[in-house]
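Question (not urgent): is this output format expected?
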Amino acid sequence: MYGKVIIPTDGSKYSLVSVKEGLELARSLNIPAVAVHVIPPYHPGKAFGRYRIEELGHRCLNEMVKMLKKRGVSILSEVKKLAEEMDVELETHTFEGRVYEKICKLAEDEDVIYISSHGRSGISSYLLGSTTERVLKHTSADVAVVKTKTD
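Got this back:
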């Protein structure tokens, strides 16, 4: 049926729901899972927290990216613990780039992507989060969108 379950996570409480359900699917089908955390690109003129990138300076931005990579590794280590508890084979990846592109690139036609309806922003005024919507539009793999409450 499926070759593997791709499980994107941003570490939010919303994505944790899809992580658990994705791992459960992998366990029930006896297939491997791939957890992925993507650090989005930051460009001059774009806000980073309450600061604009040009205000931070290049050196500070590099430190911020290092911190985000470290956070990504930490998030994926938590997913790895869950996978071990559930006896699911898991591969993990941390990437930098456009989030939806990296997720779609990992998925092959015979895979399924398990993704939460919303991520860190948890914006409940939209039907889907922007990353989830872009993944749906740009992949040929099956996508399971896990609806999470955003209140």
